[in-house]
Amino acid sequence: xxxxxxxxxxxxxxxxxxxxxxxxxxxxxxxxxxxSSLDPTDWSAFRSIAYRxxxxxxxxxxxxxxxxxxxxxxxxxxVCHQLDEPVPVNPQGLEKVCEDxxxxxxxxxxxxxxxxxxxxxxxxxxxxxxxxxxxxxxMNSNAAGGRQSSTLVERQVLEWCREIFGFPDTYxxxxxxxxxxxxxxxxxxxxxxxxxxxxxxxxxGIINGPRLVGYASAETHLCNWRAFELLGIGRNSLxxxxxxxxxxxxxxxxxxxxxxxxxxxYTPFCVIGNVGTVNTGSIDDLCALKRFASKYxxxxxxxxxFGALAILSKELKxxxxxxxxxxxxxxxxxxxxHVPYEAGCVLLRDKNQQLATFSSHGRYLTDDEIHxxxxxxxxxxxxxxxxxxxRALSTWFTxxxxxxxxxxxxxxxxxxxxxxxxxxxxxxxxxxxxxxxxLNIICFRVQPEGLTDENEIDTFNRDxxxxxxxxxxxxxxxxxxNSRLYIRCCVMNHRTVYADFDxxxxxxxxxxxxxxxx
Length: 518
Ligand SMILES: *Cc1c(COP(=O)(O)O)cnc(C)c1O
Description:
By secondary structure, this protein is α/β, with parallel strands linked by helices. The protein has 14 helices and 11 strands. It is about 40% helix and about 10% strand. Mean pLDDT is about 95; it is low at about 1-15. Bound molecules: pyridoxal-5'-phosphate (PLP).
């Protein structure tokens, strides 16, 4: 793996201290082996605090349904004031920290653990993984790789993903913080691969290189153009191609755009497919994108942040056909797999391309020092981060505890729940449900009688959403489709049951009536 081109120069002169005069006597210092670490002095007191906190955590999850989704927005002023304290120079003790946590922090989450949280694209977490995260903090592994169990667990999780998505044996990948980081890495590999041997971008940067351009649909998530910005390719170089009636990339427009670029002398290098867009959950035709990518010799990257794991559902799997042919795939475990934050993944077709982009050698970090052997990858060479949390553990716990079949069934159930909710909404003539509904996202617009001005209807829906959120009954969010504001629910929640939509529906009707009668 050594890539001497990028290695730092060897240290030449090693100072030789052997002949230094060390004196004739040493005054003995503290001889108590247990005296002065940051660990508890009273372990039984620590144990009782810890048990209490664990019980509290279990009760929180167990009773989550009984609580309002949002406890309080905004967070009370006095809480903000109390959180605003000077640097704690003197110890406050664990008891006090837990007390502050319980009064100032714990009561004010975003609400995404609750069964009626359907805003944005948030994951709900799962109880078993609380243990995983505690154990991961206990081991405090730096998952940089080498001969330690975190390496084997990460390799196992990646290997499962390879199998789930049908990637080849040559694959590479990494567990990362989320799809944003996964996208950044995948597109870095794509960029370096495209420049190939002609330009050594790692040594020279992209100055004097060709003008790279890439393609994605107009519905693509912002993390894709953020990667273009950070990789020095520039946001304008990601062409946002119009979508068809199903909110999927329009293949004719795509072809037209690339031909204009080729004529103008640009160098197209990648096309991005979406599996589950944030607005409507649409899935691009990955087979068509693969044909397009082959025709123009482009890298096919897939953004499957939440949607990719729909592959675990036997009903949904056929819709993801072609994903196995991607050059890279970015997706999250912390969304539809319900692993607690943060846990995302990048898969790449070719591990060598990944290493060619990221691996580097410094004299303070040599491969043999951290026990590199076959089978123990050096994961710090697989991406931009050197120190890495043991993120793979929560995913390993969740996959093993629940199994892919049940996890897939829960994913499919969310899609069925959204259809059920659509049928509830369609009972009201003054509610417009946006079509098509392709996955687990539903967008609708309330058009109360007497309101005809579209801008006023936008405002009405925005206020209605805020009222619903503040009521504590449910958390939807909003989006804009065809220039109009819609209330949006992204159901990615294993705690949600069908009856939750009856409760939500009631609230929508009540608040609409109340607002309309004002
Ligand atoms: C959430 C999301 C992202 C970003 O992923 P993070 O895990 O938040 O970094 C990208 N694309 C889509 C479609 C998403 O839903």
